[in-house]
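>> received
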Amino acid sequence: MLQSASAGDIAFLLTTLVAGGVLTGLIAGLFGVGGGGVIVPVLYEVFGMIGVDTSVRMQLCVGTSLAIIIPTAMTSHRAHVAKGAVLPGVVRTWRVPAIVGILTGSAIAAVAPGRVLQIAFVLVVGLLGLKSLIGRNDMTVADHLPGPGAMRGYGFFIGLASSLVGISGGGISTNILLLYGVSIHAAVATSAGIGIIIPIPGVIGYAIAGWPHLSQLPPLSIGYVSVIGFLCIAPVAAFVAPYGARLAHRMSRRHLEIAFGVFLMVIAARFLYAAVHG
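>> returned
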Protein backbone atom coordinates (compact mmCIF):
# COMPACT_ATOMS: atom_id res chain seq x y z
CA MET A 1 0.00 0.00 0.00
CA LEU A 2 2.10 2.88 -1.27
CA GLN A 3 1.55 6.17 -3.10
CA SER A 4 -0.77 4.54 -5.68
CA ALA A 5 -3.08 3.07 -3.03
CA SER A 6 -6.81 2.78 -3.67
CA ALA A 7 -9.56 4.39 -1.61
CA GLY A 8 -10.05 1.09 0.22
CA ASP A 9 -6.35 0.94 1.07
CA ILE A 10 -6.44 4.49 2.42
CA ALA A 11 -9.53 3.64 4.51
CA PHE A 12 -7.70 0.67 6.02
CA LEU A 13 -4.69 2.90 6.76
CA LEU A 14 -6.95 5.45 8.47
CA THR A 15 -8.62 2.76 10.57
CA THR A 16 -5.35 1.23 11.75
CA LEU A 17 -3.85 4.64 12.54
CA VAL A 18 -6.88 5.71 14.58
CA ALA A 19 -6.63 2.43 16.51
CA GLY A 20 -2.95 3.19 17.01
CA GLY A 21 -3.91 6.64 18.28
CA VAL A 22 -6.20 5.08 20.87
CA LEU A 23 -3.42 2.77 22.06
CA THR A 24 -0.91 5.64 22.11
CA GLY A 25 -3.27 7.84 24.14
CA LEU A 26 -4.00 5.13 26.70
CA ILE A 27 -0.31 4.32 27.20
CA ALA A 28 0.70 7.99 27.23
CA GLY A 29 -1.94 8.83 29.81
CA LEU A 30 -1.11 5.80 31.93
CA PHE A 31 2.63 6.44 32.03
CA GLY A 32 2.67 10.23 31.67
CA VAL A 33 4.66 10.24 28.43
CA GLY A 34 3.92 10.96 24.81
CA GLY A 35 7.21 10.62 22.99
CA GLY A 36 8.86 8.11 20.73
CA GLY A 37 8.92 5.40 23.37
CA VAL A 38 5.17 5.06 22.81
CA ILE A 39 4.51 6.42 19.32
CA VAL A 40 7.35 4.76 17.38
CA PRO A 41 6.46 1.16 18.34
CA VAL A 42 2.77 1.80 17.61
CA LEU A 43 3.61 3.26 14.19
CA TYR A 44 6.05 0.45 13.46
CA GLU A 45 3.35 -2.18 13.85
CA VAL A 46 0.72 -0.12 11.98
CA PHE A 47 3.00 0.61 9.02
CA GLY A 48 4.01 -3.05 9.01
CA MET A 49 0.35 -4.06 8.72
CA ILE A 50 -0.09 -1.91 5.60
CA GLY A 51 3.03 -3.28 3.92
CA VAL A 52 5.65 -0.55 4.33
CA ASP A 53 9.03 -2.13 3.57
CA THR A 54 11.44 -2.56 6.48
CA SER A 55 14.11 -0.61 4.58
CA VAL A 56 12.17 2.63 5.14
CA ARG A 57 9.68 1.74 7.91
CA MET A 58 11.78 2.82 10.88
CA GLN A 59 12.69 6.12 9.25
CA LEU A 60 9.00 6.78 8.56
CA CYS A 61 8.12 5.97 12.18
CA VAL A 62 10.77 8.31 13.59
CA GLY A 63 9.92 11.22 11.29
CA THR A 64 6.19 10.89 11.94
CA SER A 65 6.76 10.56 15.69
CA LEU A 66 8.70 13.82 15.74
CA ALA A 67 5.78 15.54 14.00
CA ILE A 68 3.20 14.08 16.41
CA ILE A 69 5.03 15.23 19.53
CA ILE A 70 5.34 18.89 18.42
CA PRO A 71 1.92 19.98 19.85
CA THR A 72 2.55 18.11 23.10
CA ALA A 73 6.03 19.60 23.47
CA MET A 74 4.75 23.14 22.94
CA THR A 75 1.91 22.71 25.43
CA SER A 76 4.23 21.22 28.02
CA HIS A 77 6.76 24.02 27.58
CA ARG A 78 4.16 26.77 28.06
CA ALA A 79 2.93 25.13 31.26
CA HIS A 80 6.43 24.88 32.75
CA VAL A 81 7.39 28.43 31.74
CA ALA A 82 4.27 29.69 33.51
CA LYS A 83 5.49 28.03 36.71
CA GLY A 84 8.96 29.60 36.34
CA ALA A 85 10.84 26.31 36.75
CA VAL A 86 12.84 26.33 33.48
CA LEU A 87 16.62 26.91 33.70
CA PRO A 88 17.04 29.30 30.74
CA GLY A 89 20.86 29.17 30.78
CA VAL A 90 20.82 25.42 30.18
CA VAL A 91 18.36 25.75 27.30
CA ARG A 92 20.49 28.46 25.68
CA THR A 93 23.65 26.36 26.02
CA TRP A 94 22.00 23.26 24.56
CA ARG A 95 20.06 24.96 21.74
CA VAL A 96 22.68 25.16 18.95
CA PRO A 97 24.48 21.86 19.66
CA ALA A 98 21.11 20.09 19.90
CA ILE A 99 20.10 21.41 16.47
CA VAL A 100 23.46 20.27 15.05
CA GLY A 101 22.81 16.85 16.57
CA ILE A 102 19.32 16.77 15.06
CA LEU A 103 20.60 17.61 11.59
CA THR A 104 23.34 15.00 11.96
CA GLY A 105 20.76 12.36 12.92
CA SER A 106 18.58 13.32 9.95
CA ALA A 107 21.57 13.00 7.62
CA ILE A 108 22.32 9.55 9.05
CA ALA A 109 18.69 8.54 8.47
CA ALA A 110 18.99 9.56 4.83
CA VAL A 111 21.75 7.06 4.11
CA ALA A 112 21.69 4.44 6.87
CA PRO A 113 19.59 1.26 6.79
CA GLY A 114 16.61 1.04 9.13
CA ARG A 115 18.55 -1.38 11.32
CA VAL A 116 20.80 1.46 12.50
CA LEU A 117 17.78 3.38 13.80
CA GLN A 118 16.40 0.21 15.38
CA ILE A 119 19.63 -0.33 17.30
CA ALA A 120 19.67 3.32 18.42
CA PHE A 121 16.08 2.94 19.60
CA VAL A 122 16.95 -0.22 21.54
CA LEU A 123 19.87 1.49 23.31
CA VAL A 124 18.04 4.68 24.28
CA VAL A 125 14.71 3.11 25.22
CA GLY A 126 16.41 0.19 26.97
CA LEU A 127 18.44 2.54 29.18
CA LEU A 128 15.37 4.65 30.00
CA GLY A 129 13.46 1.46 30.82
CA LEU A 130 16.25 0.23 33.10
CA LYS A 131 16.32 3.62 34.85
CA SER A 132 12.57 3.41 35.44
CA LEU A 133 12.86 -0.12 36.86
CA ILE A 134 15.63 0.99 39.24
CA GLY A 135 13.40 3.89 40.26
CA ARG A 136 16.03 6.17 41.77
CA ASN A 137 16.35 9.90 41.03
CA ASP A 138 18.99 10.54 43.71
CA MET A 139 21.97 9.08 41.84
CA THR A 140 24.40 11.93 41.05
CA VAL A 141 27.90 12.40 39.67
CA ALA A 142 28.27 15.99 40.92
CA ASP A 143 26.33 18.63 42.81
CA HIS A 144 26.60 21.23 40.04
CA LEU A 145 26.40 21.32 36.25
CA PRO A 146 29.62 20.80 34.23
CA GLY A 147 31.40 23.45 32.18
CA PRO A 148 30.26 24.85 28.81
CA GLY A 149 32.18 22.30 26.73
CA ALA A 150 30.63 19.29 28.44
CA MET A 151 27.19 20.92 28.37
CA ARG A 152 27.47 21.54 24.63
CA GLY A 153 28.49 17.91 24.22
CA TYR A 154 25.40 16.83 26.12
CA GLY A 155 23.28 19.10 23.90
CA PHE A 156 24.66 17.49 20.75
CA PHE A 157 24.05 14.00 22.17
CA ILE A 158 20.46 14.87 23.14
CA GLY A 159 19.73 16.17 19.64
CA LEU A 160 21.41 13.23 17.91
CA ALA A 161 19.74 10.55 20.03
CA SER A 162 16.34 12.24 19.80
CA SER A 163 16.56 12.54 16.03
CA LEU A 164 17.53 8.89 15.62
CA VAL A 165 14.86 7.60 18.00
CA GLY A 166 11.95 9.99 17.33
CA ILE A 167 11.56 11.59 20.75
CA SER A 168 11.60 15.16 22.07
CA GLY A 169 14.64 14.43 24.23
CA GLY A 170 12.89 15.04 27.53
CA GLY A 171 13.68 11.67 29.06
CA ILE A 172 17.36 11.95 28.14
CA SER A 173 17.88 15.57 29.22
CA THR A 174 15.96 15.07 32.47
CA ASN A 175 18.21 12.19 33.49
CA ILE A 176 21.35 14.14 32.57
CA LEU A 177 20.28 17.07 34.77
CA LEU A 178 19.37 14.76 37.65
CA LEU A 179 22.89 13.33 37.55
CA TYR A 180 24.19 16.82 38.36
CA GLY A 181 21.94 17.49 41.33
CA VAL A 182 19.23 19.51 39.58
CA SER A 183 15.85 19.12 41.29
CA ILE A 184 13.32 16.89 39.56
CA HIS A 185 10.91 19.79 38.96
CA ALA A 186 13.58 22.02 37.38
CA ALA A 187 14.95 19.08 35.37
CA VAL A 188 11.55 18.21 33.91
CA ALA A 189 10.73 21.87 33.20
CA THR A 190 14.08 22.53 31.51
CA SER A 191 13.71 19.34 29.46
CA ALA A 192 10.39 20.69 28.22
CA GLY A 193 12.33 23.75 27.02
CA ILE A 194 14.73 21.64 24.95
CA GLY A 195 11.75 19.55 23.84
CA ILE A 196 10.35 22.36 21.69
CA ILE A 197 13.70 22.82 19.91
CA ILE A 198 14.24 19.25 18.75
CA PRO A 199 11.08 18.10 16.87
CA ILE A 200 10.67 20.87 14.27
CA PRO A 201 14.14 20.72 12.61
CA GLY A 202 13.94 16.95 13.00
CA VAL A 203 10.70 16.81 11.01
CA ILE A 204 12.18 19.03 8.29
CA GLY A 205 15.27 16.85 8.10
CA TYR A 206 13.30 13.61 7.85
CA ALA A 207 10.96 15.11 5.24
CA ILE A 208 13.93 15.99 3.06
CA ALA A 209 15.73 12.70 3.71
CA GLY A 210 12.73 10.63 2.64
CA TRP A 211 11.82 12.55 -0.49
CA PRO A 212 13.72 10.18 -2.85
CA HIS A 213 11.80 7.21 -1.39
CA LEU A 214 8.20 8.40 -1.87
CA SER A 215 7.32 5.39 -4.04
CA GLN A 216 7.96 3.12 -1.04
CA LEU A 217 5.94 5.21 1.42
CA PRO A 218 2.20 5.38 2.27
CA PRO A 219 -0.15 7.92 0.66
CA LEU A 220 0.20 11.56 1.76
CA SER A 221 3.73 11.18 3.04
CA ILE A 222 6.09 14.16 2.96
CA GLY A 223 9.36 12.31 2.86
CA TYR A 224 9.66 10.25 6.02
CA VAL A 225 6.70 12.07 7.62
CA SER A 226 3.22 10.58 7.28
CA VAL A 227 0.62 13.36 7.20
CA ILE A 228 -2.13 10.80 7.70
CA GLY A 229 -0.27 9.36 10.66
CA PHE A 230 0.02 12.80 12.23
CA LEU A 231 -3.61 13.76 11.66
CA CYS A 232 -4.98 10.43 12.90
CA ILE A 233 -2.80 9.80 15.93
CA ALA A 234 -2.16 13.24 17.45
CA PRO A 235 -5.79 14.32 18.12
CA VAL A 236 -7.02 10.82 18.98
CA ALA A 237 -4.18 10.26 21.44
CA ALA A 238 -4.84 13.64 23.06
CA PHE A 239 -8.54 12.76 23.47
CA VAL A 240 -7.91 9.29 24.92
CA ALA A 241 -4.95 10.16 27.18
CA PRO A 242 -7.12 11.39 30.11
CA TYR A 243 -8.66 7.92 30.38
CA GLY A 244 -5.21 6.40 30.76
CA ALA A 245 -4.40 9.09 33.34
CA ARG A 246 -7.45 8.11 35.40
CA LEU A 247 -6.17 4.55 35.48
CA ALA A 248 -2.74 5.80 36.51
CA HIS A 249 -4.18 7.57 39.55
CA ARG A 250 -5.38 4.22 40.83
CA MET A 251 -1.80 2.90 40.92
CA SER A 252 1.10 3.82 43.18
CA ARG A 253 4.03 5.79 41.73
CA ARG A 254 6.41 2.84 42.17
CA HIS A 255 4.00 0.45 40.47
CA LEU A 256 3.76 2.90 37.56
CA GLU A 257 7.55 3.14 37.32
CA ILE A 258 7.87 -0.65 37.23
CA ALA A 259 5.07 -1.01 34.67
CA PHE A 260 6.62 1.68 32.46
CA GLY A 261 10.06 0.14 32.79
CA VAL A 262 8.72 -3.27 31.80
CA PHE A 263 6.86 -1.70 28.86
CA LEU A 264 10.02 0.01 27.59
CA MET A 265 12.11 -3.15 28.01
CA VAL A 266 9.55 -5.18 26.05
CA ILE A 267 9.57 -2.57 23.28
CA ALA A 268 13.38 -2.56 23.25
CA ALA A 269 13.38 -6.36 22.97
CA ARG A 270 10.89 -6.16 20.08
CA PHE A 271 13.13 -3.81 18.11
CA LEU A 272 16.25 -5.78 18.99
CA TYR A 273 14.60 -8.84 17.50
CA ALA A 274 13.66 -6.87 14.38
CA ALA A 275 17.23 -5.56 14.04
CA VAL A 276 18.77 -9.01 14.40
CA HIS A 277 16.33 -10.89 12.18
CA GLY A 278 15.65 -8.15 9.67
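>> The two ends are 20 Å apart (CA to CA).
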